[in-house]
Amino acid sequence: MQINDALNACRHNYTDLVTIYDDNDNATLAKMIVNGSMYCGWIGANSCTWSNGDPVTFNNITRNFTEESCCGALNTDGTWECFNCSSQMYFMCYKQGSLNYSLIPENKTWFAAQKHCRRNHSDLVSIRNQTENERVKEAVNGSNSIWIGFRYNYSLAWFDGGHSDYEKIHNVTGETNNAGCFTFLSKQLPESWSKSNLNTCGALCYKSFIHVSSKKMSWEEALDYCSSNFSGLLRIESEDDQVETEREIKRKKVLGPVWVGLRQSRLFGFWIWYNGLSVGNWTNWKEGSPPEHQVSQHCGALEKVKGQYKWCDKDCRSEFITLCELK
After folding, report:
1. Taking every annotated instance into account, which residue ranges of this chain make up the domain C-type lectin (predicted)?
2. Beta bridge partners of 186
3. DSSP strand E in 138-270: where?
4. Domains contained in the chain, number
5. What are phi and psi of 302, to 5 degrees?
6. Fewest beta carbons less than 10 Å away: which of 42, 172, 198, 298?
7. Are 277 and 214 in the same domain?
8. pLDDT tens, residue by residue, 271-307
């Protein structure tokens, strides 16, 4: 399947295409490829973005693709081509929230064009599908090639919003390979391999066990929300749970504390999970030990401390984003 099919399949049936954080993740997925029926599998890495930061999911680059310096231009026939970003040409701006495209008949470099669009419009134009590609092509109205917002990046972005510094890209052979903008994991590639083989790639998906609420609420409201719609407030019972929780918080770009299923027994003073189960041997308290009964707030949250999320006590009436366990 192609990248868009893989992306849609993962988001419909799971959570998203997988993000690879370290050698262990890479080795686990590579083993799945080697032992399975797939020759290659799409992962969630994307080395191209639009000027506004959105990942590229529709790609009409047909020639002159280079990873050294690649800024995208739309040709008169609707195809895209990579040029050195310091080249000068006309460019297309757009207005956020509308289909209002503006062709600017001034020769500028890609970065100067980007600056002009952001100052006077919203940004350089983004193209998300074939229909939008045709609209932009019509707006060009016979001009020569024009700058659009497409740009190749030297570092990978991930479709699910995950933050990973791990990269293991090989252009022709090896485990992880870059196909223009998108990346796949594969067995050793034969010399005869070409991009037409990408139809044989499957999708490597992951399923998150965490739901992140879209609205802030008190701890009691969070308890009812998670119990009514999911399996309950999130319990973190191991370092693996903690790592996955931090990844999900970063994927969703959550700022500030988040509610989890910790609460304090007002009668006895010890901390328990919302369902009455005791907190096990593994803990991650901000101060290294649970807050004491007489001076503590009675509900538990995760809060970022020096780049890491730690358990802490909060006033139960405070309103935060909530983490639930998926059913």
Report:
1. 1-94, 96-194, 201-325
2. 40
3. 146-158, 176-179, 182-186, 202-203, 205-206, 210-212, 232-233, 258-264
4. 3
5. -105, 135
6. 172
7. yes
8. 999 998 889 889 999 988 888 766 568 899 999 988 8
